[in-house]
Amino acid sequence: MLAIKTAIIGLGIMGQRMLEHMLLHPEFVVDTIWDPNSAACRSAQKLAPDALIASNAEAALSNVDLVYLACPPAPRKAYALTASAQGKAVFLEKPLGVDVAESRVLVRELTAAGVPTAVNFTQAAGRALTDISAGSKVGALGDLMGIDIIVTYPHWPRAWQQTADWLRFRNEGGMTREVISHFLFLSERILGPLELVWAEPEYPPKGNLCETHVAARLVNGAGLPVMIMGSVGGAQPDRQEVTIKGSKTSRRISEFTIDTVSSGGQFEPSSSNPTDTRATVLKAQLDDMVLLMNGKPNRLATIQEALSVQILIEGILSGQRAS
């Protein structure tokens, strides 16, 4: 098979991170790149000197098989539909969007276009989720009891995100969309579809900045709970933790990839833990993108799964409660 010619639109933190990993992957060629920020384009081209900096987003699509969209949420729909209308495969960053009605249209139109599509929930093809999902299906955890999600940060955006200024504003940013969405995706993969019972977000009293605290309870069809607690502030390290609770054993994923297990005592490294680093996770995502492009079964997040997560996330941010 020929290498998958790819255009990357959006060359911020995630766009450049994916660019680096595509350059390392033998089945991808980064053909064109574009970002409205010329400095970001120059920075990205230092990583990929053979890639062409397109004159605009539409021009970036003309000669590729796959379009990877790492731009902020608002413009993603237009770019994705332009790409799919040309028969290009589409790989979107999460969240799928911030307007649920618009995202429903996006999912409907991408489905009608019939092109390969996926959303980059980075745990989807990771070893930890794959192992826990398989284990839960064969009873390795015993009876599932629910999931706890805890995220805490001293500052938001985090230090390495400061150049992505949109992340601090309520209309597109915030830890709930950026981080908790990953863990709700994981939760639905394990427990099935979730329904929001109640949510309590807290925002700064002035301006349009994003949430500083959030608490929420969701349940699956069997009534198993997913509890969320998130906060920003205080002298502390980042904490990103999901605990899948079972009557026999529980599994905890920390910092997206550190997989540990407990049978009632301290959480200890699981057998799948040692090599599951960010690099191997992103390679796994790209390996599964190759499968998707070839019409084969894969573990990537579908646009339908991403829409389900978005509906939950936007409900949490609006303080929605079940009727």
Short description:
This protein is of the alpha/beta class.
By secondary-structure content and strand pairing, the structural class works out as alpha/beta
Indicate the percent of residues in helices. 25-40%
User: Which spans have pLDDT < 50 for at least 5 consecutive residues?
Assistant: none
Tell me the series of helices and strands, N- to C-terminal. EHEHEHEHEHEHEHEEEEEEEHH
Query: Which CATH architecture of the largest domain?
Result: 2-Layer Sandwich
For the record, what CATH class of the largest domain applies?
A: Alpha Beta
Enumerate the strands of the largest sheet in spatial order, edge to edge or round the barrel. 8-9-10-7-11-12-13-14
Rg, rounded, reads 19 Å
List the domain count as a whole number: 2
Give the strand content. Answer: 25-35%
Using the coordinates shown, work out and report the CATH topology of the largest domain. Dihydrodipicolinate Reductase, domain 2
Shape: globular
Topology, number of strands? 14
Can you summarize the main beta sheet?
8 strands, mixed
Mean pLDDT: 94
| CATH evolutionary superfamily of the largest domain | Dihydrodipicolinate Reductase, domain 2
Distance between the first and last residues' Cα: 52 Å
Number of helical stretches of at least 4 residues: 9
